[in-house]
Amino acid sequence: MNLVFGKYVPLNSVLHRVDPRSKIIALFVLLVAIFVPDSWWAYLALSLFCILLCALSKISAKTVLKTFKPLIFMMVFLLVINCLSIKTGDVLAEAFGFAVYSDAVFNTLKTVVRLLLMIIITTVLTATTKPLDLTLGIEYLLKPLRVVKFPVHEMAMMISIALRFIPTIIEETMRIMNAQKSRGVDFEEGSLKEKINAILSLIVPLFSVAFERAYELADAMEARGYVPGNARTRYKELKFGFIDAVYMLSAIAILAFSIFTKIYL
Amino acid sequence: MKIIEVKNLVYSYDNKKMAANDISFEIEKGSYTTIIGHNGSGKSTLAKLMAGLLEAKSGEILIDGIKLNEENIQSIRNKMAIVFQNPDNQFIGSTVKDDIAFGLENHQVPGNQMEAIILEYAHKIGLDAFMDKEPSNLSGGQKQRVAIAGALAMGPDIIIFDEATSMLDPKGKRDIKKIMSDLHKEKNITIISITHDIEEVLQADNCIVMNAGKILMIDKPSKIFEKSEELRKVGLEVPFSALVKEALKKEGLKVKSDDLEGMVKELWQLHSNH
Amino acid sequence: MAITFKSLSYIYDKGTPFAHVALDKIDLSLEEGKVTALIGETGSGKSTLVEHLNALLLPSEGELEILDYKMVAGHKTKGLKMLRKKVGLVFQFSEYQLFEETILKDVAFGPMNFGVTPEEAQKKAVKALKLVGISEDLFNNSPLDLSGGQKRRVAIAGILAIEPDIIVLDEPTAGLDPKGAQDIISLFMKINRQYGKTIIIVSHDNDMVYNYADEVVLMSKGHVVTKKETVEFFDDDALLDEYGILRPQIVMFKKMLKDIGFKLKGENRTLEDLSKTIVKEVRR
Question: How many domains does chain B have?
């Protein structure tokens, strides 16, 4: 899999050390900051900030560019649609009785820039934060929901166990798939009926193994003293420090600048 | 001193076949007991009953003199840990450290004390180099070692091993058996191990043979293996040395020793005398 | 020759920074009708090699001939599906491949995938189930309700019903109790002797290998170290020590006897033969 989007990249950077809560809040603040302004000055500031983030996270430019690749088709499609529908602004070019207007190009460009910025800031979060730390951060941030009896901790436990078992389940899927291939199952070709049977031959064993695992896991957790709803201490405590505050405040500053450009420019 | 007393224990999964049929036995503190029997003889059920994961239909279990019931199960779990068969299905944390921490978190050990405890027990089991590894990068034997470190970190008096070596390769099996024997000898931890491994049965103090939910025999391993016919009848293996003794007997040669080394010496003696 | 590897290499994630050579220039040929044991440490490449036999993996370099099929790295081979009919692969913990509503349907699933009519497939399934010792009154039960040992047998029947010429077993006895393990091994020996099927067995259980295999192939770090007749292999002390191979118990016993001074004549492969030889020696 060459997909980089959403994947954790184990490096040792400043951003890897920033508190996940700070990073999650910053993500939302920056998302708002991206959608508020119209001014190119705001986008320039946001772009510079994103470049700074990438540099700080030690993620290579190549990696970031790779995440853009699947979007190229969408961008071209958007440009064509906009050129056909938007007929305001100056005429930039004309051929065969068809005119391309400046607003069409600028609108497309703006959408594209917004999208790319969004992808960069999300990638920065997922690439620098372990899935488990992300869960931990979300759990801390959702703590107030406990007041309304929302099982925040149990939810977080479920997510972290799911994350832990993803590689195991993938491996299992490959194994069952191979076993069924040996029995003559063709996962690529065949009629609809054959395809349904092929999928069943994979899904049924996968579920039965998953249930078996779940039961054994529940026993293991119980034997090790886990009781849902009981108080537990924490091995990994999140500590909100100076750089976490700086990180969050700089995101807020960018948002403030975006709002400023929206109102005054 | 008795650390476990089981009295008239009865359990069945569907009220038809008895998985535990009036089982009674006692286990000495600091002893090493293996439980053998073919698959479906009720060994694992017994382990789960002792660990409080199943509730007996009748009868009772005393752990260190305290009767096991729903109220005190949590405090009894401080004294007793269990290591299961499948290395993957008991690995809860995302890394070795996190997994050892899981039990400590449940028992509300203060967060700032955990690191030291985790490092101490990981070191004892030889996991120092693996602390930040994820389960998918560990072998089966290494995962079982993590499970043992996690169990030890709770400071238990008793550890139950439920076929803990059966899914491992020979090297993994050897490692885990060695650890079990060391825990028994050096840490004076009471070990109860459900197994199919004859070699392991021989390294223990006592052996319980189960069949159809009942206890067939309880004795020292050497005594158990004298009854090779009875063991075969319930689908169990006989140690190699007993097989040699039988084969020689068939050829009209009786040897006294029970172990191979003794036999070889005895045979050489006979050869030299001739 | 049933199977011939010609300087075959397999590289996982070829062309990426994670590239890993799992098989390195393997040259190996296996004869028809024999029982061959494939041994070696975890990670020595046994499983990768086995997956080639069923075209689940294709060579990265070199070539592989199985019966009438030839797979050459970089070339497309046609009819790989039919190769899978000729080579049956019984995976480790094969009970996890059962999925149909009834045992009979599950066993008939394989033959039907290879184009046999439903009636014919059913016949083959019944035959295979009888061979593995599943009683007829269970045929219409769900395979998921069986005990572990029975499930494994149904899974094996599912492969036997395809009627392959070569049967490859990956740790067929893992997780079974001694009696269950013995039953499974005896079954495959019967299949080898009665039907002349070629059997390749991957195992860590050297006692079982010694008792049943005709030849042993030792793998280490992606290489084939050697292929030898079983008795000869386990008599090679230098080799066993170099690769840290556990001796089967009878070999261990023979070594103890030799070390003390006994001169044992003959192969003495079974305990029966060995005790006869011992008695002869003692009474000489």
Answer: 2
B150, part of any domain: no
Task: Give tens-digit pLDDT for B135-171.
Answer: 988 999 999 999 999 999 999 999 999 999 999 999 9
Q: C48 and chain A: CB distance < 8 Å anywhere?
A: no
Here the CATH number for the domain that contains residue B209 is 3.40.50.300
The per-residue pLDDT for B273 is 83
Does the beta carbon of B72 lie under 8 angstroms from any beta carbon of chain A?
A: no
The predicted-structure confidence for C97-116, as pLDDT tens digits, reads as follows 999 999 999 999 999 999 99
Q: Give the number of beta-carbon pairs within 8 Å between B and C.
A: 81
| Beta bridge partners of residue C140, listed in sequence order | none
Question: Distance (Å) from the C-alpha of residue C252 to the closest C-alpha of chain A?
Answer: 36
Among C88, C97, C162, the residue with its CB nearest the CB of A180 is C97
B165 found inside a domain: no
- Is residue B158 assigned to a domain? no
Interface contact B255, partner C, CB < 8 A: no
B107 domain residue, yes or no: no
Strand B66-67, strand B58-63: pairing: antiparallel
Residue-number span of the structural domain to which B226 is assigned: 1-78+191-235
Q: Do A181 and C98 lie within an 8 Å CB cutoff?
A: no
In C, minimum Cα distance to A190 occurs at C113
C49-75 pLDDT per residue, tens = 999 999 999 999 999 999 989 999 988
Given B38, B251, B271, which is nearest C275 (Cβ)? B251
**DSSP code at position B159:** E
Domain positions in chain A:
1-151+237-265, 153-228
CB C58 within 8 A of CB C23: no
